[in-house]
Amino acid sequence: MSSTASTAGIVSFEQARRLVEQHAAGVAPGEVEAVDLLAGLGRVLAEGIVADRDFPPFDRATRDGYAVRAADLAKVPARLEVVGEVKAGDWPEPGVCSVGRGQAVGIMTGAPLPAGADAVVMVEHTALAQGSHANAAKDAALGFAQRSHPNAAQNAALGWGTLGSGRDTLGGKFVDILRRVGVGENFVLRGSEARAGQLLLDRGRRLDHAGIAIAASAGKSRVQVFRKTRVAVLSTGDEVVEIEATPGPAQIRNSNSYSLAAQVQNAGGEAVRLAIAPDERGGLRALIQEGLRCDLLLLTGGVSMGKYDLVEEVLGELKAEFYCTGAEIQPGRPVVFGSCGSDTPVRADGEVAARTRAGAPAPHKKYFFGLPGNPVSTMVTFELFARPMIEALAGMTPQPLIFLRARLKSEIRTKTGLKRFLPAVLSGEFENAEVELARWQGSGDTATLARANCYVVIPPDRERIEAGEWVPLLMR
Ligand code: AMP
Ligand code: MG
What we know:
Layout: H1 5-8, E1 10-11, H2 13-24, E2 32-36, E3 49-50, E4 60-61, E5 65-68, E6 78-86, E7 103-107, E8 119-122, E9 126-128, E10 140-146, H3 152-156, E11 157-162, E12 174-177, E13 187-188, E14 199-201, H4 209-217, E15 222-226, E16 230-235, E17 240-241, E18 252-253, H5 255-266, E19 270-273, H6 281-291, E20 296-300, H7 311-317, E21 321-324, E22 326-327, E23 329-330, E24 336-340, H8 351-357, E25 366-371, H9 375-393, E26 404-408, E27 412-413, E28 419-427, E29 434-437, H10 446-451, E30 454-458, E31 464-465, E32 470-475
Parallel strand pairs: 1-22, 6-7, 10-11, 16-19, 16-20, 17-18, 20-25, 23-28, 26-29
Antiparallel strand pairs: 2-15, 3-14, 4-13, 5-7, 5-8, 6-12, 9-12, 21-24, 24-25, 26-32, 27-31, 28-29, 28-30, 30-32
Helix pairs in contact: 2-9, 5-9
Adenosine monophosphate binds at residues 235, 237, 239-240, 252, 254-257, 300-302, 304, 306, 309, 372-375, 444.
């Protein structure tokens, strides 16, 4: 049986969130398009990114130093003959540049490990062998070998030598290794990060800079992403005017359409701002119908108990199904969640997800959120409830809502009964963050909210929270 506005009811924060998540699990993303890699930033992958080769593609040195055989270093200091050098980009041809017993090859970070070597000694733990260097003063302190060396004095401080310039009595060039290394130290084995053909990034991942890096490493100059979710944003209220207009004495500018459009964009969607709906059935209904042509409809205002709060009524006339008509939260208590146009009515209990997964989606069903008109309530309820639906419609794998914790700077007193998300300022140095409530004038106070950077979350059963207590935060 489907729920009407009068039967859906007010639920706890957790129940409301779960309802959204359950319905979100049943939606299908839009079409797929190919975009240039950087244009994919913030978009949701419609393909998995697969390693086109081993990562790393060769045994890769992670330090500047000498490629050695660890067994040669049973006793240190140990003197090894330097038989070559590999820098990043060089390929040490086995047989031409390999490490035999008692030998070492100079190696730089990012270079392939030569055959025969099983470890890298950091140059800081080496010294050029005495007498092996014409101009050893500075090279010796660090230990490196270079072919023609303009500034050997500096290199001598580390163990870099100059091949050909410093030969010992036997004619070779030698380095003293001062510390032991274990097998496998200071290089990464070929394929240890990923094997060729292995999945690096899942379909359904939203591309961030790290994802872009992975895709770039796999040679993906273009990526398949889902079409952006189109989200209609509909502000309601006779007092609300467009921001270009000069407001009359009792009018306010339509900030919600803009904050919502910004939040939609941040969530990876594309906002479609509709005209402001009047507090009158006919006009409101026409705009709701227009909004239902998008993938998702966000309304703001008109969901409270006022005589002219007509949103639920008009949605009811459009045969909407309501999953909740309020949540026990502050700000944002009157938030409404529902859908319109379902030809297979589903209940708000998880059945939806199961049914669509079984291959019977409700094709014409459009979800909507009626967010309260108070600007702070609009913003908070968007983050708590609308965002996961937008992400799901964009094909994104569900993400948990993450709460951080910080120490409370000064005591909070409040009333029990609602879970509160109060604008707050997180500050402090490095790991010693502390949080303090912003002094606000209630849910209409956007000026304070703009200065805040998070919300302190207060459970419904707490009246008083002492200074110094660790409190959960929702970052903004
Ligand atoms: P309502 O939810 O319609 O009762 O509105 C609650 C409060 O939010 C009222 O003070 C409205 O004037 C204000 N409000 C409603 N819609 C908007 C909007 N689009 N932009 C800014 N404030 C709004
Ligand atoms: Mg209103």
